[in-house]
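Anyone up for a design puzzle?
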């Protein structure tokens, strides 16, 4: 089967690192800023950055509804950190006017780890990722307060859920794109391949 094309939402955040990680995991990777570009990809990564800014720019660029529509209709999506916040059906400690796309029945608390520790690294055992723990890079990271019945918890750090999957939507509190270990991106590329067959 041909190589899947995976976009990285390029409104704000660490776009380049995800493009590199996706290419290393055998996908064709390209930045996505406009609805026409979104229409051309088989899957999408929402990077880390600042979810309040990303939310605002999604409105300005006319991307909010097209993104919601594609997530609803089954396009595989993977969000890291701010991207995880964007994929939560409900958030805590967000800005009042902050929008999310939704996709995972979970409540995510923004900057939750940040209140304790601005940034840190920790070994994280993640279900679906073989070969030992991944290096979790947490930067003003959110955690998942609770998940609904359809969401599957894939990883926990310090008693807090930090990786979740619900059907075609994957989210991590941490940033695998910053480590040079492409196993989580490879898992996502597999999800995109599976959705195409
Ligand atoms: N604290 C940021 C937010 O609220 C997320 C930080 C990150 O993506 N590294 O969006």
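Challenge accepted. My sequence:
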């Amino acid at each position: 089967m041909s190589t899947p094309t995976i976009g990285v939402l390029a409104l704000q955040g660490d776009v380049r690192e995800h493009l590199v990680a996706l290419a290393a995991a055998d996908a064709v990777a390209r930045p996505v800023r406009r609805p026409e570009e979104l229409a051309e990809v088989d899957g999408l990564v929402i990077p880390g950055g600042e979810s309040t800014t990303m939310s605002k720019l999604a409105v300005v660029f006319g991307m909010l509804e097209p993104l919601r529509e594609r997530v609803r209709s089954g396009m595989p999506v993977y969000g890291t950190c701010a991207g995880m916040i964007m994929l939560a059906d409900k958030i805590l400690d967000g800005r009042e006017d902050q929008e999310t796309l939704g996709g995972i029945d979970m409540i995510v608390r923004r900057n939750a780890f940040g209140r304790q520790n601005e940034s840190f690294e920790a070994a994280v055992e993640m279900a679906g990722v073989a070969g030992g723990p991944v290096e979790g890079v947490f930067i003003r990271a959110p955690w998942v307060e609770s998940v609904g019945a359809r969401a599957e918890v894939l990883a926990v750090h310090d008693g807090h859920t930090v990786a979740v999957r619900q059907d075609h939507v994957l989210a991590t509190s941490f940033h695998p794109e910053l480590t040079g270990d492409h196993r989580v991106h490879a898992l996502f590329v597999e999800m995109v391949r599976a959705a195409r067959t």
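A detail worth pointing out: The first strand starts at residue 5 and ends at 9.
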